[in-house]
Design goal:
47% helix; three-stranded antiparallel sheet; Double Stranded RNA Binding Domain; 14% strand; 5 helices; alpha+beta
Length: 133
């Protein structure tokens, strides 16, 4: 993943924040909406696009666009930084290769302990039975 090239392909849009905040909310467009067209990206290879598309499927629109937004801060510039960092984190997680799971054997001591417990339980039940004359 070429981070520098991907950052150039991002589209930012400033909109007015929703919710409480008084006059500042009504006047200032501090909320930042980031959109990234995954399928049209030149920074990602075809394999990376396919991997990101499958892993980010719930977050993508029908057109294959990833949309992130941030209105945590009153500053538009700070919100832009936050949403950009969030985007990089999301893309890193989507493109990260998972290590294959190594199947592990059950230790012999654990098996022995389980069998011993079963034997002890069986003896306990056996001792509660009515004697057979």
């Amino acid at each position: 993943m070429n981070t520098g090239q991907i950052l150039q392909e991002l589209d930012y849009k400033a909109v007015r924040s929703s919710g409480a905040g008084g006059q500042n909310v009504n006047k200032v467009s501090s909320k930042v909406v980031l959109s990234f067209n995954l399928m049209a990206s030149n920074a990602l290879t075809d394999e990376e696009k396919l991997l990101a598309e499958t892993r980010l499927a719930p977050r993508l629109t029908n057109d294959g666009i990833l949309i992130l937004q941030c209105d945590e801060d009153r500053s538009q510039l700070r919100n832009k930084d936050i949403v950009t960092k969030r985007f990089i984190t999301v893309m890193d997680a989507a493109l990260k290769e998972e290590k294959p799971r190594k199947p592990t054997r059950i230790p012999r001591s654990v098996i022995k302990k389980r069998i011993e417990g079963k034997r002890r339980q069986a003896e306990k039940k056996q001792s509660r039975r009515r004697p057979d004359f």
